[in-house]
Write a structure and sequence with these properties.
Layout lengths: L1 H9 L24 H4 L13 H5 L3 H17 L3 H5 L6 H15 L7 H11 L6 H15 L2 E8 L5 H12 L8 E8 L7 E5 L2 E4 L2 H15 L1
Parallel strand pairs: 1-2
Antiparallel strand pairs: 1-3, 3-4
Helix pairs in contact: 4-8, 6-7
Length: 223
């Protein structure tokens, strides 16, 4: 795994989380929304720094697949984001990490757009924002394709059959607005059980933690 290969580069250095950094001003020209490439009248729903080259070279599909592959790496290796923000990474360390990230893309980066983007992030000490870029690019591509995220949060991982039944049920309801749904499963043990379903600007909280909170409030109000 990438974590095992990168750990020797860190030594005993402290790792800090800083996924909310933004690119410096001289890189803002590198960024335009992916959705704008599909239709000039579509305004990007979120700001995204980087990857306008994908729109200019008509490589949105390969770029999307590359970033999706990197997003999977972050899901499998939860400590990766911390590694990328380590202040002690040398230029050589960053180069090795970029090469390893490229390997995980599996050759789908046809125009080398993501490869160049990774190098830009590394050169400007911004590898720490990569996870956020992957998530926002997926949001933009979904908007461009007319998709709507259906986020399903559970206390434990759900089976694919369960997710498919939920998708089918929501697709038939008014909440889908007739759009194609993209299921985004998440796991949060803090909800204790049940589900939290988010679609568009609506949230349906059927979690055990929410029920306990309501019960506690009811007891508090009656005492």
């Amino acid at each position: 795994m990438l974590l095992r290969q990168a750990r020797p580069l860190l030594g005993r250095a402290a790792v800090r989380q800083n996924a909310q950094q933004t690119l410096p001003a001289n890189l803002r020209g590198y960024a335009q929304a992916a959705a704008a490439a599909t239709t000039q009248d579509t305004k990007p729903p979120v700001a995204l720094f980087g990857l306008d080259a994908a729109a200019k070279t008509s490589s949105l599909d390969s770029t999307s697949k590359s970033l999706a592959a990197l997003a999977e790496v972050f899901k499998k290796d939860t400590k990766l984001s911390g590694i990328l923000t380590a202040p002690t990474l040398s230029p050589g360390d960053k180069s090795q990490i970029v090469q390893e990230l490229q390997r995980h893309m599996g050759g789908v980066d046809k125009g080398e757009t993501v490869k160049n983007f990774l190098k830009t992030l590394a050169d400007n000490n911004r590898l720490g924002i990569l996870q956020g870029v992957c998530e926002k690019f997926a949001t933009l591509m979904g908007a461009a394709r007319g998709e709507m995220d259906l986020t399903v949060t559970s206390a434990a991982k759900l089976e694919n059959k369960t997710l498919q039944r939920l998708e089918t049920a929501v697709a038939k309801s008014e909440y889908s607005q007739g759009k194609k749904l993209k299921v985004v499963p998440k796991v949060n043990p803090d909800i204790m059980g049940g589900l939290v379903v988010e679609i568009g600007d609506r949230t349906i909280d059927l979690s055990v933690s929410a029920k306990i909170a309501k019960m506690n409030k009811l007891l508090t109000d009656t005492l």
